[in-house]
Amino acid sequence: MNNEQKLELSSSLLSWLVEEMRISIPERALELFEKTLQLEKIQLKLFHGQQISNEEILTIATLKHFIHSSEEIAQMPSPYKTVEYTSVDNKITET
After folding, report:
1. What secondary structure, in 3-state letters, does 30-70 show?
2. Contact partners, residue 35, CB within 8 Å, separation at least 6
3. What is the rounded distance in angstroms from the CA atom of residue 10 to the CA atom of residue 17?
4. How far apart are CA 86 and CA 35, in angstroms?
5. Whole-angstrom distance, CA of residue 57 vs CA of residue 73
6. Distance (Å, rounded) from C-alpha 41 to C-alpha 87?
7. For the segment 41-66, what is each residue's pLDDT rounded down to a tens digit?
8. Quick check: pTM over 0.70?
9. CA angle, 65 as apex, 28 and 56 as ends, to 5°?
């Protein structure tokens, strides 16, 4: 079983635990898990010398913001702003 198949299996297992076993997992934790799987897939592509798309670059930027906002939420109980990113020609701009 290769790494990509392991990632897919992890995602399927988590879905099964939530849906079939009715295990309660906070939504934010599920989002982080899904984003981490996306990041792992991107890392595999880079490891194998494959080029990544603008969408995958945006995924990295979004995950970075997601983690940063999660840290802010953990430190102080206040609303956080939503940041959107756009990517043109492999350059990321915060909007």
Report:
1. HHHHHHHHHHHHHHHHHHCCCCCCHHHHHHHHHHHHHHHHH
2. 59, 62, 63, 66
3. 11
4. 18
5. 24
6. 19
7. 888 888 888 888 888 888 888 877 77
8. no
9. 95
Residue in the structure block whose two tokens are 């798309």: 53
> What totals of helices (H) and strands (E) does the chain contain, helices first?
3, 2
Q: Which of 30, 38, 26, 90 is nearest to 64 (CA)?
A: 38
Residue among 26, 37, 92 nearest 65 (CA): 92
Residue 40 CA from chain centroid, whole number? 9
Unique residue bearing structure tokens 């849906």: 19
- In the structure encoding, which two tokens stand for residue 5, read together? 């198949």
Whether 32 shows a pLDDT value over 60: the answer reads: yes
Domain positions in the chain: 28-94
